[in-house]
Amino acid sequence: MGIEAWYMDSSEDDQRKPHKLEPNKPVSLEDLQKLGVFHWKLNADLYEEDPELEKIRKEQGYSYMDIITIHRDTLPNYEDKLKMFFEEHLHLDDEIRYILDGQAYFDIRDKEDQWIRISMSKGDLITLPAGIYHRFTLDETNYTKAMRLFVGEPVWKAYNRPADDFDIRKKYLASLQGS
């Protein structure tokens, strides 16, 4: 089972709930690719010596890697961090995440500024393009362990919306014109 994505409802209810529209309006992998979001399914049990992961890292130039466990018992300032991750923001670099255990959601904006929720579980590797507005949250299991990958040195800076003046945002929007 790969990632699943759908358009979100506008309910203010707990961010960790699925927030599917009624009826559900699914989003395909092709639709995500048009927004610059790419996905691989890997065997997370092998992540330490997975040749497939090595190949992706080499091809994409992901030289830096670390692992974060997002759970009340392992992450200092857990509630604050979750709130921060859920603020709508963009980065000047691609965001690359590989779920090694547990589950999580990435929410991204489509061309019409509607929220799409991407449900990720163990083995899902996703790349979000620099300049896309997005946010992150756990689901109701309240646990995920993820590998964070970067090209070169990690840059943790998030720019909360509005951040439309950045060249990378303009470049991202221009890239959507072609699709």
From TrEMBL:
Q: Where is the composition biased (Basic and acidic residues)?
A: 13-23
Location in the cell reads: Cytoplasm; Nucleus; Cell membrane
Q: What are the required cofactors?
A: Fe(2+); Ni(2+)
Question: In the UniProt record, which is one GO cellular component term?
Answer: cytoplasm
Q: How is the cofactor bound?
A: Binds either 1 Fe or Ni cation per monomer. Iron-binding promotes an acireductone dioxygenase reaction producing 2-keto-4-methylthiobutyrate, while nickel-binding promotes an acireductone dioxygenase reaction producing 3-(methylsulfanyl)propanoate.
Bilayer-spanning residue ranges: none
Q: Does the keyword Acyltransferase apply?
A: no
Pfam families from the xrefs? ARD
Q: Where is this region: Disordered?
A: 1-24
Q: What is its EC number?
A: 1.13.11.53, 1.13.11.54
Q: Which InterPro entries match?
A: ARD, ARD_euk, RmlC-like_jellyroll, RmlC_Cupin_sf
Q: Which GO terms describe its biological process?
A: L-methionine salvage from methylthioadenosine
Which membrane topology describes this protein?
Answer: Peripheral membrane protein
Enzyme class, first EC level, given as a word: oxidoreductase
> What is this enzyme's catalytic activity, as reactions?
1,2-dihydroxy-5-(methylsulfanyl)pent-1-en-3-one + O2 = 3-(methylsulfanyl)propanoate + CO + formate + 2 H(+); 1,2-dihydroxy-5-(methylsulfanyl)pent-1-en-3-one + O2 = 4-methylsulfanyl-2-oxobutanoate + formate + 2 H(+)
Binding of Fe(2+), residues: H89, H91, E95, H134
Report the family membership: Belongs to the acireductone dioxygenase (ARD) family.
**Name the record gives this protein:** Acireductone dioxygenase
Lineage of producing organism = Eukaryota, Metazoa, Chordata, Craniata, Vertebrata
